[in-house]
TrEMBL record:
Its main location: membrane. It is a multi-pass membrane protein. The chain crosses the membrane at residues 6-23, 30-53, 65-83. This is GlsB/YeaQ/YmgE family stress response membrane protein. The lineage of its organism: Bacteria, Bacillati, Actinomycetota, Actinomycetes, Propionibacteriales.
Length: 92
């Protein structure tokens, strides 16, 4: 169980930091928020991977395709977050 939690945190951190590097804009996110971004990205990437390829964690939790999917999901989550921040700032 501890290994699963550590894997989620490490993959979340990697996906979150890479997503922040790939998305052009200033993001005022803490390290914890970046890890949470990566974890949300992993969930989004896992869902998209399952919907597109019908694969799930039965093939193993730590795979290169899973990390790539996590990064793609984190980029999607970050872009959606930035769009929601712009909307709330323009309405204020």
């Amino acid at each position: 169980m501890l290994g699963l939690i550590l894997t989620i945190l490490v993959v979340g951190a990697i996906a979150g930091f890479v997503a922040r590097l790939l998305v052009p804009a200033r993001q005022d996110l803490s390290v914890v928020a970046t890890i949470l971004l990566g974890i949300v990205g992993s969930l989004i990437g896992g869902l998209l991977g399952y919907l597109l390829f019908h694969k799930d964690a039965d093939d193993g939790l730590f795979q290169p395709a899973g990390i790539i999917g996590s990064i793609i999901g984190a980029v999607i989550a970050l872009v959606v977050w930035q769009m929601s921040q712009r909307r709330s700032a323009s309405h204020a």
